[in-house]
Design brief:
Elements lengths: L21 E4 L15 E8 L3 H10 L9 H5 L3 E6 L2 E2 L13 E2 L4 H7 L3 E3 L9 H14 L8
Parallel strand pairs: 2-3, 3-6, 4-5
Antiparallel strand pairs: 1-2
Length: about 150
């Protein structure tokens, strides 16, 4: 059971996703006769950020730390989805804006190991460090193994 603290501190927090898993089962009643009764389950998670404080926790406790309490749950779904709220790159030119999020390019493997199958990059931090950093992020996700995983 996950406990929610009214005033979480950095030592007690994991990536801010563990508390927001949503499960869906798709209705197949309108499908062809041979497909009826089959379902697909989806775990949908909000923003995943590997920069700043979370990055420091990963450095201190290892790559499994952010998802160690929920990876079994994520892997129990047919598909697991998250929004990556940072680029994974060590390249690029920072844009002029208040908050810029960039993390180590090797962190894409964390998403795959945790059980994610689909990663959205549709957010306001996708181009924080320009097109090179975005391309590194895409390459990292594609090379992490999640796009080829069989369940």
């Amino acid at each position: 059971m996950l406990k929610i603290h009214s005033k979480p501190n950095a030592a007690s927090c994991r990536v801010v996703l563990a508390l927001f898993l949503l499960a869906f089962t798709f209705d197949t009643s309108g499908a062809r006769a041979d497909e009826r009764g089959k379902s697909v389950t989806l775990a949908a998670v909000g923003d995943v950020l590997f920069a700043r404080g979370v990055g420091k926790k990963i450095d201190a406790y290892g790559p499994d730390y952010p998802f160690e309490l929920v990876s079994d749950v994520l892997n129990s779904y047919d598909l697991a989805f998250c929004n990556l709220e940072c680029v994974l790159s060590d390249r690029g030119t920072p844009r002029i804006k208040r908050f810029l999020f960039r993390a180590d390019p090797d962190r894409a493997q964390i998403l795959s190991s945790a059980g994610f199958d689909i990663v959205s990059l549709a957010n306001n931090h996708t181009l924080d460090f320009g097109p090179d950093a975005l391309q590194d992020t895409i390459d990292g996700i594609q090379n992490s193994g999640m796009t080829k995983r069989q369940r």
